[in-house]
Amino acid sequence: MVPILDKEDFQFLQEGLPFYTQLEPAQQARLRQECARLSYRQGDKLHRGSQDCAGLMLVRSGRLRVYILSQSGREITLYRLLEWDICLFSAACIFRDINFEVWIEAERGSEVILIPTALFGELSQQNIAVADTVNHLIASRFSDVMWVMEQVLFMSFDKRLALFLLEQQAIEGSGQLELTHDMIANHLGTAREVVTRMLKYFQSEGMVRLSRGMIEIVDEGRLRALAG
Amino acid sequence: MVPILDKEDFQFLQEGLPFYTQLEPAQQARLRQECARLSYRQGDKLHRGSQDCAGLMLVRSGRLRVYILSQSGREITLYRLLEWDICLFSAACIFRDINFEVWIEAERGSEVILIPTALFGELSQQNIAVADTVNHLIASRFSDVMWVMEQVLFMSFDKRLALFLLEQQAIEGSGQLELTHDMIANHLGTAREVVTRMLKYFQSEGMVRLSRGMIEIVDEGRLRALAG
Questions:
Q1: Where is the HTH crp-type domain (chains A, B) (predicted)?
Q2: ipTM beyond 0.90?
Q3: What is the location of CATH 2.60.120.10 in chain A?
Q4: Among A28, A91, A202, B102, which lies 20 to 30 A Cα-Cα from A158?
């Protein structure tokens, strides 16, 4: 059995769902009864393409990474989900016009509140506020993905890597980044060797300092200038 | 003044809009009065990023190409719109969660029926069937774009070019394709030299025959095998 929501989880759910106040009392009661809190360890897969369809997830804590995966195992990160974010594609099976597959993993230890697919499907059929939230989410994620696409297509790799390191610094709140070259390659959809070569160039230019499993930003200003 | 719809245009509009029968009589009357038929010549731009926001367009005839454009002028085709297709992003300004820019051009002489932005915005606020159509369209286009993204990221260029030539053959209904190497480069988001080199390789392998402004498919079976 999955853990039922405690009082604080349910409070979080009420605040986190834009449509909560517009649900009928009976619908609110079903959320209370049927939602569950799930815990994931760093690296756990929450969703693997069309193999999974657990339901809508509200991130309670931690960080999720949404990415696509090629047949040969290459990855590229589409976007991240942080506390209060809603994960739509873990319920992808209920949207008939969505016919692509994403993978979702916990980038660090994470807790989510799950609205199971059956319940979420019913609510989105019955309640216009739920449908409206879904539509805003799809349009926002579409915009996120277009941003990644423009980066991949139109931006040179040195700019992309500089931008990625600066984003990581903002997310972590520190310029000491625990990242392997493999992890960066998976985020940016490229080969590890390409990442290593560019990081060595950044180091030779005095922008970063490299050590095992760690990249330290030492000249943020120059990285910013490079990222444009 | 733009030409008002004649009887046949209006018939086409009624059949082409999935939500038409669910509109109020007064809303139907406004469509009759306020929609216009617009004609474009091959190469005309219908929509240029955030500079334009004419409204929803229903393709009456011809073919539109929707693409993104980099600051340096590089392009990549996202999808095409044919007769009966609805063009959503020519009304992008009314969707607040859509914050990317696309360009739209007539790939051949085309006619569209335009529902002006002001009217379309009102209808989508007032009528749930209109909002529903918009949501299905956004999700479908999202899927189209993810397909392009996976191709660009994960597929080698020889496969992509083979697939592109086969798609063109299907669209044109002919293996004699009037395409310059520049046009293909813009579709696929690459440099002309890369296209030329690969086409010459295809020719040396007996899959295509090249002449000025023309590519002829001579071994469809091998192209299909290459495209996978």
A1: 155-221
A2: no
A3: 7-153
A4: B102
CA A210 vs CA A173, A187, B208: distances in Å:
18, 18, 49
Domain with CATH 1.10.10.10 in chain A: 155-227
CATH 2.60.40.1230 matches A7-153: no
- Cα–Cα nearest to B123, from B17, B2, B16, B7: B17
The class of domain A155-227 in CATH terms is mainly alpha
What's the distance, Cα to Cα, between the start and end of chain A in Å? Answer: 50
C-beta atoms of A68 and B141 within 8 A = no
| Structure-token pair, residue A157 | 């790799």
- Subunit contact A100:B71, Cβ cutoff 8 A: no
Contacting B with CB below 8 Å, chain A residues are 68, 70-72, 74, 76, 95, 97-100, 128, 131-132, 134-136, 138-143, 145-150, 152-154, 189
- Looking at CA atoms only, how far is residue A102 from chain B in angstroms? 10
